Amino acid sequence: MKNCVGMLLAGGEGKRLGLLTKDSAKPAVPFGGKYRIIDFALSNCANSSLQTLGVMTQYSPLELNKHLGNGAPWGMNRQNGGMTVLSPYIAKGGGDWYTGTADAIYQNIHYIDSYDPEYVLVISGDHIYQMDYTKLLKHHKETGADATISVKPVSWEEAPRFGILNTTEDMKIYEFDEKPENPKSNLASMGIYIFNWSSLKSYLLADAANKDSSHDFGNDIIPAMVNDDLKLYAYRFEGYWKDVGTTLSYWESNMDLLDENLEFSLNNKDWRIYSSESNFPPQYIGDTAAVKNSLINSGCWISGTVENTIVFENVEIEEGSIVYQSILHPGVKVGRDAVLERVIVMENTQIPDGIRIRIEAEKEPLVIDQETLSELLLTEKV
Question: How do beta strands 127-129 and 241-243 pair?
């Protein structure tokens, strides 16, 4: 992929994730026991041998920037190419915040041009999946496409949340509707694109000059290309893919990791998920502990009962406590005789002795941090 530049959109605010993104960008939210959401897209780039990647950040980027560092965990700390963090900036000719996905790429045209690529890969930093982008690029070349969109069928109930495509039998796209109320198909765009750079650049320039545009790929760039009858093809992805857009989908996708029959595995030795590593000692499982079907990370001290739960690093669960179908972020401390069920506990929260928080299966899992926990205790709701 030496003639392809990757552009990773990682500036999302993630409003629907609520408390999880109060102080952090959505791609930086912890996921899967030792990772952050963005690690999956970055690892796809690393495993696909992508040489050059621009990461566009915007909302609350401090935690995300610390995590990205110089790109070393993903093998992108190169002298030539590698990973570059691209934040909005004011130049001599002006500048502004990124106002849409297409605008984010437009504001970094100079970065892409500096590598003179033939192709540009555009991906998002908030999806959970394992994809070989070399196969996507190969499909793009074989069809002679101007643009290729990775797609996956979704349920008809979910379809209005996505860009929906209609294609011919050979997967040529003839219609594209962004989040339609009444979708004509359930073939959804995954927000993963490969473009011929010469074609995309001309559309970005025209879009930037259009004051009525929302400067978005789904709303503006893709429909414009379809209307102009450019060669757009769909690439059907068969593997696991999850758009972590809500608290429920975040909880579900973490729980998916505990399904031993799931096609998606963190233990795939042929497709490693890379992340920044911290230097904690091995986990300790005490003689009073009972751990079943859970992911337990390093630095943890477990003396209670843990079942169907994701436990991040440096977590303590004391004797007599029961944690079930929950997610405990780094540094969480659970006191004695506490009960947590369908709860997402944010970083460094201290759960006092005897507390009981049980969320019924039909309700959305509860997200708590130290502040919201204090409010719950004051109102005697736990």
Answer: antiparallel
The string over 36-51, giving b where at least 16 C-beta atoms fall within 10 Å of a residue's C-beta and e elsewhere, is bbbbbbbbbbbbbebb
Q: Which tens digit of pLDDT belongs to each residue from 176-215?
A: 999 999 999 999 999 999 999 999 999 999 999 999 999 9
d(CA 100, CA 55): 15
Residue 35: exposure state from Cβ atoms within 10 A (0-12, 13-18, ≥19): buried
Tally Cβ neighbours within 10 Å of residue 22: 14
| DSSP H helical ranges for the chain | 38-47, 62-68, 101-106, 109-113, 133-143, 197-208, 222-227, 247-256, 370-378
- Cα distance between the two ends of the chain: 54
Share of residues in the chain with pLDDT > 70 (%): 98
What would the DSSP string read from start to end of 292-330?
Answer: ES-EE-TT-EE-SEEES-EE-TT-EE-TT-EEES-EE-T
Provide the CB-side half-sphere exposure for 172 (13 A, CA).
Answer: 12
